Amino acid sequence: MATRTSNDLELVHLTKRYGQTVAVNDVSHIFPPASYICLLGPSGCGKSSTLRMIAGHETVSDGAILLDGADISHLPPARRGTAMMFQSYALFPHLSVKDNVAFSLKMKGVDKETRHARAMKLLDLVAMDHLADRLPAQLSGGQQQRVALARALVTEPRVLLLDEPLSALDPFLRIRMRAELKRLQRELGITFVHVTHGQDEALALADECVVMNNAVIEQAGPPRDVWSKPRTEFVARFMGGHNVIGWDGARYAIRADEVSIAAIGLPAAVTGVEYQGDRVAVTTKTEAGEEIVSLVPEDRFFAAPINPGETVHLGWDQGRMHRLEA
Ligand code: ADP
């Protein structure tokens, strides 16, 4: 049995059924304590159902959710030690920023002075204390996001649950907010479980990436392991940056940046050329009909540009091929 530290969030044979649909199928997993966890996978794979069951916004069909060894599966959301931050910030439009953040404390009967002091401390943490008296409508999207974060954190959760918290933001703000989330998680030293369908977001944020597919966890681990050592073809394709090729009756992954275009090698027809700034993605089709992408550093590409329709030769170090499970 694995060594237990406090703060462990654990899923034990967790299942969620909606009628005939099995959204989460017998999932068991121990999340590393006080870490930034990203749950990712394609739409419909069961991420939100998992998160909502942890939060208590969805009933558990089978199995259990443990926090610090105690079964929280049947507790009401407010008594679990978890808090959820929603994608749509759902702030109360008629309440000031400060009262929005203090709201759940008011419901718990905390006196006004204490709850306002606590709300101001959280607003300070998300750098929104100077706008405490504004109404939500007087804030930008990014500022509303921070208030929603403070509101979720005011209950001092052990686990903060975030359902695609950045998807409503423009790309520039999204990158800034994700750095903020990471900083907050580190400062607070609690577990964040963040659902995303963005691989880049997961790689940038996570201490642990949990990749789901078809209602189960397909692979979990540090982002670098999951990205560079995908266990299955699904993970290799979903995390991106890899080609999957057949070889000697097995399937292998080879990184696209390790496929080079050379004078000799596997002949392939160029089907697409995409400029990506620091590199150029050259998509090709081999005679066997396999699609192989080569990521060429931009200076190398432009020294001898290639066009769709041309035939090139592909090469890579066979020792760098990574065998995938069937
Ligand atoms: P994800 O968050 O990965 O997109 P979900 O957990 O939302 O996946 O959904 C997993 C599966 O469960 C999907 O097939 C979805 O259609 C189904 N599902 C989700 N919520 C409900 C619901 N309230 N009623 C019926 N089916 C649902």
Automatic annotation (TrEMBL):
Keyword Translocase annotated: no
Name the UniProt record assigns to this protein: ABC transporter ATP-binding protein
Protein's organism: Paenirhodobacter populi
Keyword Zinc-finger: no
PROSITE patterns cross-referenced by the UniProt entry: ABC_TRANSPORTER_1, ABC_TRANSPORTER_2
Record domain ABC transporter: where: 9-239
One GO BP annotation of this record: quaternary ammonium group transport
Keywords carried by this UniProt record: ATP-binding, Nucleotide-binding, Transport
Bilayer-crossing regions: none
Single GO cellular component term: ATP-binding cassette (ABC) transporter complex
Record-linked InterPro entries: AAA+_ATPase, ABC_SmlMolc_Importer, ABC_transporter-like_ATP-bd, ABC_transporter-like_CS, Mo/tungstate-bd_C_term_dom, P-loop_NTPase, Transp-assoc_OB_typ2
GO molecular function list: ATP binding; ATP hydrolysis activity; transmembrane transporter activity
